[in-house]
Design a protein that fits this description.
The protein is an all-alpha fold and 226 residues long. It has a domain of 131 residues. Helix content is 65%, strand content 3%. It has a two-stranded antiparallel ribbon with strand order 1-2. Helix 4 packs across helix 5, helix 6 packs antiparallel against helix 7 and helix 11 packs antiparallel against helix 12. It is globular and about 65 Å long.
Length: 226
């Protein structure tokens, strides 16, 4: 396993490591949810409060329509998840992690995150590292991380993707806003996380993260080891 991590750090990101087929209908459902998710992400809670307080019927109608946006998006995601869509699994898990009480998040979100990562989709990696013990310290987690670089071609069209926190992304979110990462940002996160799990090859894995997107967190680790 240690040797395989080193091979990944030196290998190109073009070879497919997993046999993943995304159901076309599941993909259609996911993509139908995207504009609704975007509307919900751009929704200002303060403006909704002002809208509900206002007496203007048109403003109230708009507020009620916006309030329906997120549930409709979630319903579409759930239908896509039923068909095994790995990106929909991630976005539904992110919804649970954002809106459920903290005690309920691991049971609701972690199975979705784990399934998505096992299909080679990179974004769940950082959420799992924070939310999902003991899986985040298991050999299965590490094996899933190692397979991610080989799936870059399959998932290229699904980026950017949101995350609660990206250590390898220089931009910092404001308040409760999500960070949006490109594919290379998430690939750097995967190598950074592999570095945490593989002390023997940590330096080469962290260097790979730096090479991909200038990962500041990985560079800091490398500097501290000198």
């Amino acid at each position: 396993m240690l040797a395989s991590a080193l091979v990944i750090a030196a290998a190109p990101l073009s070879a497919s490591a997993l046999d993943v087929r995304i159901d076309p209908h599941a993909d259609l459902l996911y993509r139908q949810a995207l504009p609704l998710l975007e509307q919900a992400d751009n929704q200002d809670d303060d403006s909704l409060l002002r809208t509900s307080a206002a007496g203007d019927p048109e403003l109230n109608r708009q507020g009620q329509a916006m309030a329906r946006t997120l549930p409709t998006a979630v319903a579409l995601l759930k239908k896509s998840v039923e068909l095994g869509h790995p990106v929909a699994q991630y976005r539904l898990a992110l919804y649970y992690a954002t809106y459920l009480p903290a005690a309920q998040i691991p049971d609701a979100a972690c199975p979705l995150l784990e399934s998505s990562l096992k299909q080679g989709f990179a974004p769940p990696a950082t959420a799992i590292a924070t939310l999902c013990p003991p899986y985040n310290a298991s050999p299965a987690y590490r094996e899933a991380l190692e397979a991610v670089p080989g799936m870059a071609t399959l998932y290229a069209s699904y980026y950017p993707q949101p995350a609660a926190r990206l250590a390898c992304n220089r931009s910092q979110p404001q308040g409760l806003q999500m960070q949006w990462g490109r594919q290379r940002d998430y690939q750097a996160e995967v190598y950074r996380l592999l570095g945490d799990l593989d002390p023997q090859h940590r330096q080469s894995l962290l260097q790979k993260a730096v090479e991909i997107n200038g990962c500041a967190a990985a560079q800091q680790r490398l500097t501290s080891q000198r």
